[in-house]
């Protein structure tokens, strides 16, 4: 990991505190245990300090929103979550433009922090990156409403449905986009090869499923939440917990093999920008695995 990680972690914690993302001692404890800078540093070890900090702050924000939904009850029902999502969508519509105090006041600390992220992305003067980032965060927020509807009805989704929606609830795509920004990877409007999109989808699946396998026991023990690949497999196949865990691990391994094969084929004729794109996705897969092994978030 880059030597700046420790300082970036302190600066990101100060940012979260200053903007009100950590409103209680418990939320501060959870975010500290999440080690967002550690994950960002593993995923993006060659980034400049400024761009590593931007990625870290995004991950911090995603963890804060997830914790509010999963552990503080914000995501228990769509009715409760919808006003928060609407306020955050208003912030995204600005795409980093100056915001009125009234709008940010209505959006709350999560909206203020999101606006700061959008403003900093905009400062890099890469419009395609900004549009991709705001669109991906929008998809993340709307997918949270799907989770809330499932919780309200105590519904466990089927595997195919879960896999599709997990690509959005994981917040992986905006994280990929800021990693590309850090590495000067090809902007979204220049990716004309469908093979790049297919590789990104596999990478997102692997990052999210790795998270699911490591977090399963904690999430199920504390909340009984049905939003986990293991739970979806167990429900669809009517299998016991251990068998579902093994099936999830097997699916991860088979998908990793498919990812490696696609990556190898793609790199045979790739230009330097595509090499950076691929390295960013590969880095995220490995970083998530290594980070998850020691993450206090999953214990």
UniProtKB/TrEMBL annotation:
Keywords for this protein: Lyase, Magnesium, Metal-binding
GO molecular function annotation: metal ion binding; terpene synthase activity
Recorded superkingdom: Bacteria
Cofactor(s) needed by this chain: Mg(2+)
EC number: 4.2.3.-
Sequence similarity: Belongs to the terpene synthase family.
Protein name, as recorded: Terpene synthase
């Amino acid at each position: 990991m880059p030597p700046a990680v420790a300082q970036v972690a302190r600066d990101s914690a100060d940012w979260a505190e200053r903007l009100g993302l950590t409103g209680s001692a418990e939320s501060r404890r959870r975010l500290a245990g999440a080690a967002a800078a550690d994950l960002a540093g593993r995923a993006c070890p060659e980034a400049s300090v400024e761009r590593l900090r931007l990625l870290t702050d995004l991950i911090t924000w995603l963890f804060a929103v997830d914790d509010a939904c999963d552990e503080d009850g914000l995501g228990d029902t769509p009715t409760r979550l919808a006003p928060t999502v609407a306020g955050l969508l208003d912030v995204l519509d600005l795409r980093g433009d100056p915001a009125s105090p009234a709008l940010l006041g209505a959006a709350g600390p999560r909206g203020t922090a999101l606006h700061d992220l959008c403003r900093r992305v905009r400062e890099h003067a890469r419009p395609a990156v900004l549009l991709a980032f705001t669109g991906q965060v929008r998809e993340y927020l709307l997918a949270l409403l799907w989770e809330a509807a499932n919780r309200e009805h105590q519904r466990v989704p089927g595997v195919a449905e879960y896999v599709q929606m997990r690509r959005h609830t994981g917040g992986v795509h905006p994280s990929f986009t800021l990693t590309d920004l850090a590495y000067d990877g090809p902007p979204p409007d220049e990716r004309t090869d469908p093979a790049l999109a297919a590789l990104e989808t596999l990478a997102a699946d692997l990052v999210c499923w790795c998270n699911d396998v490591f977090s399963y026991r904690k999430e199920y023990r504390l909340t009984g939440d049905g939003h986990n690949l293991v739970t979806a497999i167990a429900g669809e196949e009517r299998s016991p917990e251990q068998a579902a865990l093994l099936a999830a691990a097997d699916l991860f391994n088979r998908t990793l093999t498919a990812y490696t094969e696609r990556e190898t084929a793609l790199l045979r004729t790739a230009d330097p920008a595509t090499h950076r794109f691929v390295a960013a996705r590969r880095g995220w897969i490995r970083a998530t695995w290594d980070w998850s092994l020691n993450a206090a978030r999953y214990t």
